[in-house]
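FORM 7B - TANDEM STRUCTURE REPORT

SECTION 1: FIRST PROTEIN
SEQUENCE AND C-ALPHA CELLS:
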Amino acid sequence: MIQSVIKNIILLFLMFPLVLQLPLEAKKTPRLPKTYKKWLEEEVVYIITPREKNAFKQLETDKQRNLFIEEFWRQRDPVPSSPQNEFREEHYRRIEYANKWFGRGLPKPGWMTNRGRIYILLGEPITRQTHYDTRIYPIELWFCQGGKGLEPFFYVLFFKRKGAGEYEIYSPLRDGPNALCVETSDMPSEAARMQSARDRFFTGKRQEAEIGGFAYETLYSISQDLAQASLSLIPGASRTHPVGSDRLLGNIEVHPQRKVDDEYAYEFLKTIAVVEVNYSVHYIGNKNTVKIFCDEKGVFFVHYAVQPEALSLEGYEDKYYSQFKTSGRVTDIEGRTIFQFSKSYPMEFTKKDIKAAKARPMNIQDSFPLVPGYYRFNLLLENVVSKEFTSFETDVFIPEIPESPQMSPLLLAYRTSEVQEPLRRAFQSREIRIYPSPDNQFSANETLFIYFQAYALGDGLKDEGGISYDIFRGEEKISTRAKKIKDYLNKMDFVEKFSLEKFEPGRYTMKVSLLDKNRKEILSEREEFFILSIPFPRAWTYSKKMPSSSDAVYSYLLGAQLLNRGEIEKALEKLQEAYLADKDSPDFVFAYSQALLILKEYEKIKEILIPFLERPIENYNLYAILGNAFQELEEYEQAISLYQKFISHEGASFRMLNAIGQCFHELGNMEEALRAWGKSLEIKPDQPEIKEKIKAIKMKDK
C-alpha cells in the first residue's frame, strides 16, 4: 500500500503547467480595414482570447479574415447541428441592450461602460436591485448565475463613487463597505486591511459588523443582500476573506475566453484558409469542493472533490474504458512549490453497465496531509482517453492545532455511511464517510447531512455545552434544532441530518453555533445551499484508498513539505520517523538523506545510503547525495565514482560535471578536471567561475 501511494506522488523540484500556451509566431501586423477593426475592438473585444486576437491581426486578406470570423463563431456554437448560432445571436443582443440602457448620460456607448461590459460577459442577471437611499451612494446589485469556471451563484455590485460619474464595479477587498456610504466614504476600508490567516479559517464569533462597522450596519438596514455583497460577492464565502471576490471579478473578465479552446487559432494561422481543425484537448467545466479537516493524530488533511461536466468513454469488444489523471500542486504565499502529486484513475465498464455510467456524473475525490500555513491549491483533471481536461484553484489555510475552542467550516452532504475498515478515504472521519454535494444543491426528496469538526472544547463544554442548527431563507429563520454536546459520542466529529421534504425550492443558509452552558453563542459557521424541485442523479464516487492514519507515509509527506518550506529541523524529525518505520523504502531514505545533506550530517548519510549500493536503485539521486557526502568528507575518488554512476543513468548535467572536475582538481589530476569542466561549459557556456579555474590551470602549466 505504501509503495503504491508513493509511486503516484511527485515531490520536490518538479513543476507542471495547468494550461500550455504556445506563443504564436511573430509577424508584421497588416493594417486592419475599418470593418474588421470594429469587429476586433468593439464587437468581440470582451470575448476574444489573446491567441485569437494575435492570429487575426496577422491575417493578410479580407478572405482570410472572413474565414477566421466564421470559424471564430463556429467554435462557440453550442448547437452546431442547428441552422442558427445561438451564441452569436445572444452576444449581439447583449451588445444592443447594453448600448440602449447603459450609456445614457455618458460620453461613451453602453458597451464601453462597466455595467455594459459585465452584461455582455454574463447576460441578464437573475435579479437586479437598485438602491437610491440618501445614506448611500447610488447602487445596483446584480445576483447572477455562474457557469464554467465561475461560482454557481454570485453578486456583482456597481456604485457611483462619491455619488457621481459612471457606475464602477465594487470590490470588497479594494473598496470595502465604507466606500458605499455617504458618511464613511472617506474612512479607510477595513476589508482592505485583510484579516489574519487564522481568522480566515476560524471565523468563530467574529461578527460581520466588526469588519464593516457602521457602514455595514447601514447597508444591512437597507438590504441584507447588499450588506452581504459588501463583504463578499460569493454567497456563503468567508466574510473575512475578501480575496475570493476579487478573484471572482477577474474570472468574470476572462470567463468567455476560458470556454473556448483557442488552439484552432494557431492551426488556422499555420494553414491560413483551413477551417476544419482537429483538436488535441477540450476544456470541460466542473463542480468542486475543498474542505480542511483534522484526523485523530492531529494532522490536517485537504479533502477535495471534483465533478467534471462530461464523461467520455471509448468502447472495444463490449467493454468501455476511460482513464482520468489528476495533477495537484500546492504553493505557499511566496510562490514556492510545497507539495505536488499525480494520480491515475483507470476505469472499465461492461456493456451492461455503460448505460447507467453515462446517465450519472462522476465525482473523483481524494485527500492529502498538509503542514500548517496559507497556500494556493491547483488541481488539473485530465481524461486521457478523450483528451478532455478541467481544472480549478482555491486558497487553503492549514492551522496549528488550536488551544481554545474552534470550529471547522461546514460540509453539506446528501449521504453518509459507516466506516468499516482502517484505511483512509477522502471526506472520511474515524467513524463515518461523508458524500458531499460539490455545488451544495439538493433535491426536495433528499436528506441534508451537516458535518463539521470542533477542536479544544475542554471538559466544561463537552459536559455542559450545546450546538444549535438554524436554517434561514433570506432573513427568516424557518427551522431550528438544539442538542447537547454530551449527546454526541464523538466530541470532535459532528454529524446532523435534516429531511428536506417540507422545504420549498430556493436558496437557504445553514448556521451551526457552538453554545456555552448558558446557551450563549461562542462560535458559529454558515454555509449556503440550494433546494431544487426536480430530483437529479447523484454522481458515482471514485475515491482511492489511502493507508491508515498511523502509516509512516504521512510522516514522509509532511516531512517533504517542511523540507520544501525550508523548515529543516522540523522536516528532519518527520523524515526520520518515516525512515525508522521503514528503512528499506528508497523514497523515505532519499528524503531523509536530503535533510541530512542540508544539515551537513555527512557521516550519517554514509551510514544510511551505503547499504543501498548493494541493491538495485530506482532513484538515482541517491548516488548524487552520497557522492556529495563523500566529496565534503574529502573522499574524492569515491565521490567521483558515484557521480559517474549518476551520469550513466540520468545523463550529464553541468553541476555534476563541475563537481567531478572539482574532485579531480583536489586529487591533483588537472587533465581530468579540465576535461570535466570543458564538458560542463559545452552544456552551459556562461560560467565565469569555471572559466577562471580553467584559465588558472592553463596559466600554471605555462
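SECTION 2: SECOND PROTEIN
SEQUENCE AND C-ALPHA CELLS:
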Amino acid sequence: MAVYTAHEKTMTTWDGTELFYRAWIPEGGYDRALILFHRGHEHSGRLVGLVDGLGMAEYAVFAWDARGNGKSPGPRDDADSFSVYVRDADAFVNFVAGEYGVPVRNMAVIANSVGGVIAATWVHDYAPPIRALILAAPAFRIKLYVPLAIPALRLAMKLGLMKYVKSYVKSRVLTHDQAEQERFDQDPLISHSISTRILLGVHDTATRIVRDAGAIRVPTLLLMAGSDWVVKTGVQKTFFYNLSSPVKETEWYPDFHHAIYHEAEKSKPIRRTRAFIEEQFARDPELPSLVNADQAGYTKREYDRLRRPSRNPFYGLTRLGMATVGRLSSGVRLGLQDGFDSGVTLDCVYRNQPEGRLLLGKLLDYFYLNSLGWVGIRARKVHLEELLRKYIRQQHEAGVSVQLMDIAAGPGRYILDAIKGLPDIGISALLQDYKPVNVAAGERLAAEMGIADVTYRQGDAFDRERLAQTSPPPTIAIVSGLYELFPENAPVRNSLLGLAEALGEGSYLIYTNQPWHPQVEMIARTLTNREGKPWIMRRRTQEEMDDLVREAGFEKVEMRIDEYGIFTVSAARRLAR
C-alpha cells in the first residue's frame, strides 16, 4: 500500500474564491497525479477510502471541495451557473500542475455522479490532454420522479419561486454497506438540497455533453450501477456510444447502488479503476493530431449532413417569414443584406439595441438579438476583452511596447473598447478586414470614440506572406470569429503560420472557436452568409482548434467559455522558433 502524507490546504480560483482541497503526497516521490471529483452534496473527505483503496504509490492524489460544498465557501450547493464549477475545475487542475509540478498530460481524473458531469464537461470544453477519465455513475440524467419536473422548475425559477430543491437521496439508496450508510448520515458537511439553477444547469449541460460526446477522445472508463435509484443508466450508455475515444471501456455492476466507490463490494470498481489508469499510463499518450479533421471524422460527418437538402417544411416557412415580416427587424434586414456572419451584423449584435419598423419590428429585433447564439457572441466579446486587457497589462508591466493586430476585425468595436478602457497604456493597433465597408465603418467608429493610434487596412486574413511581413511586428494578435466561418483547415493553417512568423517569442495569440452550437442546423437551413449562400458551419472541437494552434508554434495558456458552451476565447504564447 502506498504511504502518503495528507495535507489540507486552499487554493485561489479564478474569481478570488479560496477553495479547500486535500492532497495525498507519496513519500517516495511522484511524477503523476490523480484528480478526484466528489459527488453532488458531498466533499473531498468522502474520498479518503478511495485513495486508500487505490494505493498507487507513484501518484500524488488531489481532491477539491467544489464551491458551496464541504469546507469551501459559498451558498450551499449553489453558484452563478453550473459552468462556474467547470471553470473552477480547470483552475484547480492548472493550480496542481503549477504548484506540484505535474504536467496535465500526466494526470488522470476520477469522478462520481455530479462530479462526473463536471469532469466530462471540463474534458469536452477545455480539451485538456489528460491521460485517462474514469466516470462512476455520472449524473447525466437525474431521476426526479415527478412528471414534468424540469419544465416546472424552469417556470418556478423565472417566477422567483423554489430556489432550492430538497434532495430525496437517502443513504440506503446510495450503498448497501451499513457502515457507509452511517458515515453518510452522520457527516455534518453533507448537504441535502441543491439550488434550482444548478439542478437545471446539470440537466442542460449534461444534455449537451451527451449529445456532443463525439468531441471527447480522452481514454474513458465508465462504471455503471445496475440498481441506481439516483440517475438514469440509459443516458450513460448513450454518452459511451457517442464517445470518439480510441480507448473506451465500460463496467456494469448489476447489484450496485449509485455510490459505486462506497458500495459493499467497492474493491471491485477500485481494482478496475486502478488497472485502467495503469494501462493508459503504459500507452503512448499522444493521440493523432486533428489538423486534418476537415477531411474525415466527427464534425465532418455533421457538416456533410447539413450540406444535404432538408425536406422539413419548417425551415422553408422560417425563411419565408424572415424575408417578409422579419424585415421589420433592423437586425434581420441587415443580416439578409450583408450576411448574418458579417462584421456589420456582429457590430449590430454587440450594440444590442432593438430597432425596427413599427412596434412589431422592434419586438422582433429584441427576440432576434436575444437568441442564444447572439447572447453567446456577446459573452465572447466580454471574454475577448477580458483576455485582451490582461495581456496588454502584462506586456506593459514587462516594458513591452503594445502593438495589437486583428486580422479580421470588422469595425473592431471590441478592440476599440479595450483600448479606450486602458487610457494609461500606450497602445497601437492594426485592424484589418477584407471588406471595404467594414474598414470604412471601423474608421468612423474609431473617430467617434476619439481613438487615434489605430490603423485600418483592407486585407486577406489567409495571406500568409503578407501577415508574416507585418511591420511593426504585433505583440498581441487577435483572431475573433473568423476561423469558425471556414470549414476547411488549409486556409486556417496558412493564416496561423503567417501569424507565427510575424510574432516574436513570448508574444500572444488570442483566438476564438465555436465547439458547439445548439442551433447549427437551424442556421444552416435558414440564414445566409456574407456571400449570400446558406450559412453552413463545420464546428471544430476545442481539441482540433488547439491542435491547429499548436502546430503553428503556439502553446495554449488559458481559455474562457460561455455558460452555454458555444464560444471559447483562448490565449496562446508564441514558442521559440
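SECTION 3: OBSERVATIONS ON SECOND PROTEIN
The chain has a mean pLDDT of 95.
The chain has three domains: 4-281, 310-369, 376-574.

SECTION 4: SIGNATURE
Preparer initials: ____
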